[in-house]
Every structure is written in C-alpha cells, then in structure tokens.
Amino acid sequence: MSRHYQHNHYLWIDVARIFAIFLVILNHVNEQINVTPITGKTISIEFLGRLGVPVFLILSGYLMINRDYSNKIMIKKFTKHNLFSIVCSSLFWTAFFSVYGRLQELTEHCKLLKNLSW
Fold this sequence. Notes:
Elements lengths: L10 H23 L6 H10 L2 H13 L7 H46 L1
Helix pairs in contact: 1-2, 1-3
C-alpha cells in the first residue's frame, strides 16, 4: 500500500510568500528607479529586495522535506511536475535573456557607429 503525501496548510508560509513577493517587486522597482548615483538608501533597498528569491527557495525546500522519496511513483511525480518544469523554465529564460542581451549590444553598437559617422 502506498503512502500518500498530505500537505498541511500553514498561515506563516502564505505570509512569508507574500513578503517574498513584495521583496522581489521592491528589487525590480529599485532597478528601474536607480538611474541616479548610488546612495546608502538604494543599496539598502537592493539588499532587501534581493532577499526575495532566497526566501522562495527556503520555503520550497521546507515544503519538500517530509515527502516520501523512496516510492518510485512519488519520484516520477516529482520529476514530471517539479523538476521538468524548473529545467524547461531555466532553459527558456536563459535563452531569452541571452538573445535579449545580444540585441541590446547590437543596438548599442549601431548607435555608436551612427554617432561616429557624423
């Protein structure tokens, strides 16, 4: 007989997720605003904002601790639903930002060449 994983719902996990979401948004907003010289305030905001992703990772690890990974069905389910989507997402965003970065470089080079030709 297989053991089924039962997930207990904890309010503090939801609060921590909301906090992490706020931190990630804070980091992205700070990056958009931070076109002026760097100050102690912007460094503090960036430090706080960058804590969002580690909070998500810690919560994910915590929620995965008590799972039964000795059962082949559970391992297959984890691989199919979690690991596969993480790998696909990572590959997609790596390719996307690589192409985006190259396009940004080409745009800058074209601007530079245009300015030099005048």
